[in-house]
Amino acid sequence: MDFGPYLMLATLEGAVLAAVLALMASGLSLVFGVMRVVNVAHGEFYMLGAVLAWWVTSMVGGGPAVAFVAALIVVPVIVGALAAAADMTVLKRLEYDPERTIVATIGLLYILQQVTLMTYGADARPVVPPFNTRLALPWLEWSDGGLHMFWPWGLSTTTYKLFVIVAGIVILSAVWAMMRHSRIGLLMRATQLDSEMAQAFGIPVERVYALVFGIGAGLAALAGVLIVPIQQAHYLMGGDALLLSFIVVIIGGLGSLAGTIVAALLIGLSDGIISVFFSPTLAKIIATLLVAFVLVFRPQGLFGTRDR
Amino acid sequence: MTETQKILVLHVGLIALLFALNFILPAYHHGNLARVMVLATYAIGYNVMLGYTGLLSLGHAMFFAAGMYGMALSIRHLGFAPAPALLVGIASGAGLALVVGLLALRTAGVAFMIVTLMFAQTVYLTILLAGRWTRGDEGFVIQQHERVLWGIDLSDPSSRYLAALTLFAICLFATLNLIRRPLGRVFVAIRENEERARLLGYNVFRAKLFSVVISGTISAAAGASYGLLFGYAGATFATVQYSIFPLLWVLLGGTGTIIGPFLGALFMFYLIDLSSGVTNAYMLIAGVALVVLVMFAPQGIAGELRRRIWSWLP
Amino acid sequence: MSKSSESKSAVSRRSALKTLGLGAGAAAALPLWARYSSAETAAPIRIGFQKHATGIGAAYGRWYDRTSQAAVRLINEAGGINGRMVELVTEDDGTDPKRGAEVIEKFATQSNCDVAFGTLFSHVVVGSAPRAGELKLPYFVVSEGHHVASGMLNRYTVQPGITDVKSQVQAMAPFVSQNLGKKVTMIFPDYAFGHDHRDFFTAAIEAQGGEVVGLIPIPPTETSFTKYFPKIPRETEVIYHVMVGPGVLTFVKELGEFFGPSRPEIFGFIDSLEAVDLASPGLEFLEGTYFWEGNPRYAQPDQTEYDKHFRAAIGIDENGASINDSKDVSTYAHMFGCWETLYVIKAGMEAAGYAGPQDRAKLIEAVEAITTMPHSNEHPQGAKVFNGKTHQVFGPQYISKVVDGKLMVVHTASIEDGMYPDEVDYTTQAL
Questions:
Q1: What is the C-alpha separation between B25 and C31, in angstroms, rounded?
Q2: Cβ–Cβ contact C260 with A under 8 A
Q3: Is B140 at the interface with chain C, CB within 8 A?
Q4: Cα–Cα distance between A3 and A10 in angstroms, integer?
Q5: A105 part of a folded domain
Q6: Any idea where the domains of chain B sit in the sequence?
Q7: A154 and C229: CB-CB below 8 Å?
Q8: Most buried of B77, B141, C82, C184 (most Cβ within 10 A)?
Q9: Which residues of C touch B237 (CB under 8 A)?
Q10: Subunit contact A103:B251, Cβ cutoff 8 A
Q11: What GO biological process terms are annotated to this protein in UniProt (chain A) (predicted)?
Q12: Could you give the number of structural domains in chain A?
């Protein structure tokens, strides 16, 4: 494939990854920002989102579109409730101590993986996308003294992939609006700034924490539901997603939602674009080292203001 | 007894007990304990950073793998004997730790975790990329005749056990000695309050770099020994999972204790081994055990011992 | 030392133990040899089954388990081995080489297994085999890796039930070059298994006058694939793909989306879709493409009685799915290897007059002496030729075309197509 069309294809693929990553990472960032908790089980909430989406779509009749919408609504709520329950039964009792919460969430990770393996099984299972038309994309070429449009071999995307990009933008805008303009958002921001002060002002910090943990997990689950028609639900899918969203959160600057989103775009697009220039594994190595060096030379992340 | 004597009695006693077990353990547990001692050495290396200097790394598998591959590749491709190969492995780990330390120590906290994770991921992918020499994920066998160290066949159960015990004992006493020396005290000062350590005039960066290099070297020694004792080198040992393991062992056994890493590795090994005999869902049991332990024994096993009985435990 | 003196000493140990009247508790504390020789001959033969119950191999592990359980049930119904019942001792290895080696030790020294069996993933085999060799525990792998025949392993590791990747790949090249095209682009996982495909197929297709025009290795952690497909050269006549792991369905689906209506010929190893329903959404484009199959998943019009027998015993319908759940698709192209391996163990133990662990060396020699295995209920995939020197079996390979959403066999590669010169002679190693 020519260079131009290839770059466009890689950018489109990168944008899909970026959208999903931004959703998932903003959940992780929210939890870290407000609660100062590194949630290692975050990838498993993403996995649960995908697995439950398969479950819901295979239970609900009325065609793939109806089933998918049902999953989009029901699944994040279930996962969010589960996470909130885990917060109240386990994390609260650890007093959110950083090291202990890491061990506890690793434990949670094992539990969620194993329970999924025992109930859902080891197979990768597909969900039918609500719509999925292949769109061949045109490219412009300068030939015979004029600009001509043509359809290069393989340059295409699907309507569903475009939908994922749009859905990512819409959901993130909603989250941003909630943080900025709603009462819940205000409580969260107050707790993030100073939880003791917030407590003194009568904010139910414990309930805010449970809510934040639930919303964070819900966002990961939402990302899982959106990705499952493209990639299949599998009980080990959380691991790599967790690594990527960790990277995004740190690069973006801890607890900064805007930074997280920009970083997701950066990571998603660079993953696609670097693969244009290098052999695949070498591209992964370069992308990984790039992240490491960004942090080495800018430890607060690209958009963080200070090391907290 | 003074505290120093008590400490000496406990640790020498542990090594003596492990030595005695060589002669009485049934074959299966004998083999397991040899493995656990090598893994515990890895955890001891990890504990130097996490337990004594307060540096949480998520990429220690790269040091373990550097040791393993430094050793195994020099046997496979350069025809080295085990002793120099072991040294190559340890030196690879030390060199890698120096480079990683110089770069990663510019960061702190969560950024440090991610930077170490990324470097480890790079090492893992590089092993795959160099598949022509490493055979990638499949790895390769170090044949029995290549594992004869000074006339001792390391594939013999008793030799393997004693070799593992020697490695474990050296690293145990080395770290015990380290934390009682000035350098070790600086480590602890940094763990407790880095800013104050700096104000007191210590070169914090240099001390942390020492910590990373010592930790990486011990981990590499464990990796090189593991390959040599069990005859296999593979990329699996460089995956994230093998960076998480020492973290778990140390946290379970007790951060900042000398015997904690051993107790943690032993506990996790038998937890998985015994529960996998009862049910297929042993990961579930391991997960629940982690949550329960962290809720009710937050200091880890040795930490609880220190809190309840042996306040002098180092 | 001759074998007769070995078995004599084992007997004397046993009688010594009996006269001493040691209890079971004391026996547990004794070294390895003592506990083994106290085993009664009427006790069942214990086969340690190293199962990928968790980790990336879990989908295979489930079907390897079902197949093995069915074969053991049939063997026992027919009177067992040497008059003794057979018992599978299953341990999960987590698809991890470290745990795999630990499981081998457990079989040999804790759970009193006579042999170990059943591993698929190459890294687990390579990580476990040194321990099996040291413990002198016969280790029957069902892995299709080239590690056994390459000479990397040891005298106690045998692969008598499934062909290896070198043989499979080599047998495919004539068909590909004669029927699909000469210019091939290969898409494969960027690790040892994929590299074997790359190296062996490149050599084999060049021998046929074809060439590999593009190589696209995919990193193992990858979850999306479209961005790599533009690297496929335009001149490509045939795409050769082989992928393993949970991402396989995404891979195949995205391949279809990439090409749309104008695809080149596509030839894949069924590994890319093992345990995946061909009727999954997005796979419609596979119509008219070709697959290597170790054993045809869909019952063919000329289905043999042996294949019927095999399917019925495990509970698999004519589409290769569980009879209880048509969505539960088997790993049909690989799992016959477990079945056939268990029958090889049976044949070997009978030929060796196997009575207990003291006869393990005799068992290895008996298996090495096997040369041919006829197409039968014991070997439902086809007739086999076993090479006792390289410890590797050779058998037929199937190439199927997707017709109306089903895989129909269009070519059967002969045993000879997959033969290659020996790379090792394990029989020269000490037992």
A1: 8
A2: yes
A3: yes
A4: 10
A5: yes
A6: 3-239
A7: yes
A8: C184
A9: 98
A10: yes
A11: amino acid transport
A12: 1
Is A170 a member of any domain? yes
Of A134, A240, A276, the CB nearest to C257: A134
What residue numbers bound the domain in which A221 lies? 3-297
Question: Tokens 């790895």 belong to which residue?
Answer: B139
Contact check, Cβ <8 Å, B114/A247: yes
Q: Is residue A121 part of a domain?
A: yes
Q: With an 8 Å Cβ cutoff, are B284 and A295 in contact?
A: no
List, as ranges, residues 162-201 from B with C-beta within 8 Å of C: none
CB-CB neighbors (< 8 A) of A242 in chain B: none
Cβ separation of C217 and A279 shorter than 8 Å?
yes
Q: Provide the greatest CA pair distance for chain A.
A: 75
Shortest distance between the Cα of C102 and any Cα of chain B, in A, equals 8
Any chain C CB within 8 A of the CB of B137?
A: yes
Residue whose C-alpha is closest to residue A155's, from C227, B244, B272, C110? C227
CB-CB contact of C286 with C252 (8 Å): yes
Asked if residue C265 lies in contact with residue A40, where contact means CB atoms within 8 angstroms, the answer is no
Closest-CA residue to C214 (of C181, C240, C176)? C240
- Inter-chain CB proximity C29 and B24 less than 8 Å: yes
Long-range contact pairs involving A31-34 (C-beta distance under 8 Å, separation at least 24): A31/A212, A31/A213, A31/A216, A32/A249, A32/A254, A32/A255, A32/B110, A33/A192, A33/A254, A33/A255, A33/A256, A33/A257, A34/A188, A34/A191, A34/A192, A34/A208, A34/A209, A34/A212, A34/A255
To test the contact with chain B by mutation, choose from A295, A298, A300, A305 the residue with the greatest count of B C-beta atoms within 10 A, namely: A295
Give how far A134 is from chain C: nearest CA, Å: 7
- Return the residue matching tokens 């159960």: B157
**Domains in chain C: ranges and CATH:** 39-163+335-395 (3.40.50.2300), 165-293+396-418 (3.40.50.2300)
Contact A281 B248 (CB under 8 A): no
Contact B232 C127 (CB under 8 A): yes
In chain B, what residues touch A297 (CB-CB under 8 Å)? 106
From residue C153, alpha-carbon distances to A242, B134, B138, B156, B205 in Å are: 37, 16, 12, 18, 47
Instruction: Report whether C187 contacts C218 (CB < 8 A).
Output: yes
Helix axis angle, C97-109 to C122-134, nearest 10°? 30
Nearest Cα neighbor of A23 from A214, A260, A185 is A260
Amino acid identity of residue A270, one-letter, is S
Instruction: Say if the Cβ atoms of B118 and A292 lie within 8 Å.
Output: yes
CA–CA dist C250, C283 (Å, integer)? 10
Residue A60 lies in a domain: yes
Q: Are A169 and A177 in contact (CB under 8 A)?
A: no
**pLDDT per residue of chain B (314 residues) written in tens, 0 to 9:** 787 888 888 888 888 888 888 888 888 888 889 999 999 999 999 999 988 888 888 899 999 999 999 999 999 888 888 889 999 999 999 999 999 999 999 888 777 888 898 899 899 989 988 888 888 888 888 887 888 888 788 788 888 899 999 999 999 999 988 888 888 888 888 888 888 888 888 888 889 999 999 999 999 999 999 999 998 998 889 988 898 889 888 888 888 888 889 999 998 888 888 877 676 677 787 788 778 877 887 788 888 788 877 777 77
